[in-house]
Amino acid sequence: MKSKLVILSLLLSGATIANAQTKEKYYSESWKDNFFISVGVGGQVVTNPSNFDYGFGESITPLVNISLGKFFSPVWGIRGQVAGWSGKLHTQYPFENVGKNENWYNYKKKFVALNADAMLNLTNLFCGYKEGRKFEFMFFVGPTLNISNSYSTWNLATKTTEVTNADGSLTYKQELDPSKSYPKDDKVRLLVGASLGLGAKYNIDQKWAIDLEARGTVSPSVFGSVSDAKTEGIVGLTVGATYTFGGKKFVACGAKVDQNAINNEINKYRSELAQAQADLANAKNALANAK
What we know:
2 domains, two-stranded antiparallel sheet, 14 strands, 23% helix, signal
């Protein structure tokens, strides 16, 4: 009987230590849980060096986005996003070596970006999940597809200019003629790239949250041949809101199974202990009667 008492004590103490030292993990119990929809508005800028030379503020354009996604656990999830509006490019290309600074060309292109994001909740990753937490920080990364009308080539015209030398002689040279040159072959193109970003979230309740997100994208230029960069970056900043359908619902991984197993094991040894005590009492009574 003493051995069984020792075993029971070890089981109870072991269960207590395990519960205290194990950090519980959580997940979405049903595939229907933790779906969300988000909308955001803000601004974006094409990070071509020419835009900075011309004036950063002149290059900012509106940005809107709408997202649909799901969190599989408090730590990670996925979403699809449709974003865009338009982008601006101020450039002298390909006439930067012609004349002085008068050859600035301003282009504005409408485009749509399709983003597929893997999302990581940094707060829950490093601090553990806590129901009702107000502030959270997010990281997201994934492929992007920009859809835009863009030019593929130029029709470049030249002109002959006459230059008088110091000795009075004349030199003739050919140079590009901006007034007669123009880009061509403007059609819809699919531009594959990648993006990543950071977000801050304030949870109003289990369903509603306010979002602030910054995203950087790299892809072939949405302006095509009128840009001197084959690959361009776009940086956007938005503020918006997220609605989680039915509210956030996460349950501890295996919590019910583990607790039931522990309870069953304890009840088993309690029953055996009670039986051993009854057997001991019967043995004592039998010994007393024999005397």
